[in-house]
């Protein structure tokens, strides 16, 4: 598959996945660009047979690398955040996807990843386990626990 076809087919899925991880538009765009760059370099060297799970794995590790770099470069001075709420942000906050992301933030990271990959991005359990480097049964456990916690949060919050 050509890079253009790969990009056209998966760009929205990869962007949504990365946005759900970092919750920042520009960062998600940068990570998406890095993901497709790494995919291009790898595809030039070797063929990949299951593209979707492999691409999500590349995106996941790109995000992990980004987080590690951010940890190292965190300034020691506490910076006070200013809340700039725009009408666009208010609409986004009311969106159901944003509500889902807010609920997912309350879960364990692996439970969050399992739900994002299996329920939001429609990966199979096997593909998600491969992306996260987990055994299939371990992934299923995280998925089950995450779904139970999400149900409890939804019932508690009245969503």
Could you walk me through the main structural features you see in this protein, from its secondary elements to its overall organization?
It is a single chain. The chain is mainly alpha-helical and 159 residues long. It is built from 8 helices and no strands. α6 crosses α7 (125-132) and α6 crosses α8. The N and C termini lie far apart (41 Å).
Based on Cα principal axes, name the global outline.
Answer: globular
Q: How much of the residues is beta strand, in percent?
A: under 5%
Helix content: over 70%
Largest sheet: none
Roughly how many Å is the radius of gyration? 17 Å
Distance between the termini: 41 Å
Helix-and-strand structural type: mainly alpha
Give me the strand/helix succession.
Answer: HHHHHHHH
**Count of β-strands:** 0
User: Uncertain segments of ≥5 residues (pLDDT<50)?
Assistant: none
Number of helices: 8
> Quick check: average pLDDT?
84
């Amino acid at each position: 598959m050509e890079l253009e076809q790969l990009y056209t087919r998966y760009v929205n899925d990869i962007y949504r996945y990365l946005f759900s991880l970092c919750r920042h538009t520009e960062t998600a765009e940068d990570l998406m660009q890095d993901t497709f760059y790494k995919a291009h370099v790898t595809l030039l060297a070797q063929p990949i047979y299951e593209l979707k799970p492999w691409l999500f794995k590349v995106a996941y590790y790109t995000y992990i690398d980004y987080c590690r770099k951010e940890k190292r470069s965190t300034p020691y001075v506490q910076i006070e955040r200013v809340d700039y709420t725009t009408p666009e942000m208010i609409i986004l906050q009311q969106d159901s996807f944003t509500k889902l992301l807010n609920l997912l933030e309350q879960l364990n990271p692996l439970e969050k990843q399992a739900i994002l990959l299996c329920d939001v991005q429609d990966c199979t359990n096997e593909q998600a386990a491969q992306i996260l480097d987990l055994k299939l049964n371990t992934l299923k456990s995280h998925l089950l626990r995450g779904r139970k916690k999400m149900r409890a949060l939804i019932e508690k919050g009245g969503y």
